[in-house]
Structure prediction request, 199 residues.
Amino acid sequence: MTERLVHYIERKALERTFTSLADELGINETTIRRVFRKYADREMTALQFSTPKWMGLDELYLIRQYRGVVTNVRERTIVELLPNRNQKSVANYISSIKDRSHIELVTIDMWIPYRNVLRELLPHAQIVVDKFHVVRMANQALERVRKATRERLTVRQRLRLKNDRFLLLTNRENLSSDRLLLSGKLDCQLPSTWSSLQR
Prediction:
């Protein structure tokens, strides 16, 4: 096999299935797998991850199970995929980091095992809750208040507030003038907690 063919297989095997590549080249699929495996082994050996200053801990649902995902927040890259997201797996991974004192900040969701491990193994690092999770919880609270308030309104008042959910989820500066007027009326009818949540 020529070097040129080996390089072609290595490059194309990242984009296509081994079977389609074997059909195109008229060689056995096992040969494609062997060439790619050697290439992958070489690349993995050369790959060295540096400990991120800003680390992210999150999870991904993959093959019917939640897996822990460690990221470099500054570089926007994945550093490690853990077998699961439980406290022991996360603790084992963080314990294995040689220069973990290098980590200054860790972003997490509100998963308590993450926080427990970080407080124990990275007490110097600042823990930041991912904005996405905070906004999601605020939206869920707003939705509960909206539904409870609608239940107390008359049928006529409910009709006037048709699509009020979308009104509340839209930024004030993005509202049309008639929707902005309705939002002002909505503020008057709602409890003060709703109005403060909306802003």
